[in-house]
Each structure stands twice: as structure tokens, then as C-alpha cells.
Amino acid sequence: MTLRTSRELMAWQPPTGWRELSREQRHAYLERHDIQIPLKPADWEQMDHDQCMAYFAWHDRILSDTPDARAAKEREYWQRLRAWNVLMGWWILCLIAALGIVWGIDALGDAGIGMRIGFTLFISVGYTVAIFIPMQLTRPDPPRT
């Protein structure tokens, strides 16, 4: 079966159980049924950018979305999330240490309660703006299945 245009290629539906096949099994199935999926279809020059990106996503999903690849993405996600959690834990420990220094010293004397509250607010706002908000933005996203 020769599929030439991107519409013909993307209209092809893989058989049931395709997601569980390895890369070699997928290529063997395609060869057995004489299906060729080119990197660039015959109508590549007529396609606009969005169509090209949709074709690339379909091509990647059909040929590369194997159980091994999904497991590797999952492992990488958990590894990155663990590293992110460790870094966030260190920032929280630094915050606790800074607050411990502010509230643990007696150098400010009796008039120091206002200063301590001011330092606490300054440290809390500074950490929120400089550390916690950027850290939340850089938190790893789970892989799409």
C-alpha cells in the first residue's frame, strides 16, 4: 500500500495493540504490509507550517512512541522532579536558617521586635519573589501519554 500525501498517511489508522509494539515490531509490521511512512510526504512543499508540525507529531507518535520510549520519559521526569524537590528543600532550609538567625539573636534588644517582624516580612517577600515563584515555573511537567 503506497500512501503518498500527508492526508493519506495521517488517515491511516494503526492496528489495535500498536502502542505496545516495540520499534522493531512496528517496522516489521509496516514492511510486512508494504506501508512506507516517509519523513516528508509528497505534498510537503504545499503544506503550511502547522500542517508540517502536525505531520511531524503524527510521524513521531506512529514510529517512536514505544513502551520503552515512554518508560524512559517517565524515568527522566521522576529524576528531574526528585532533583527539583531537593533544590526546593535546600531553599526552604535556607529560609528557615535566615528566620532562625533573625529571631534567635538578642543583638536588637527590646526594641528589636519591630525590626524582627520587618526582617521576617522582607525575607518572606524576597524569597517568594526571587525563589519560590521562579521555582514553581521551572517545576518539571509530567510526560504526555
Q: Could you tell me the mean pLDDT?
A: 85
Give the helix tally.
Answer: 5
Structural class: mainly alpha
Distance between the termini: 29 Å
Q: Please summarize the sheet with the most strands.
A: none
Task: Please explain how this structure is put together.
- The protein is mainly α and 145 residues long.
- It has five helices and no strands.
- The protein has helices spanning 6-11, 23-32, 49-64, 67-104, 112-137.
- The two termini are 29 Å apart.
Summarize it:
With 145 residues, the chain is mostly helical. The protein is 66% helix and 0% strand. It is built from five helices and no strands.
Short key terms for the protein model shown above:
single chain; 145 residues; mainly alpha; 5 helices; 66% helix
Helices and strands in order, then pairings?
Blueprint: H1 6-11, H2 23-32, H3 49-64, H4 67-104, H5 112-137
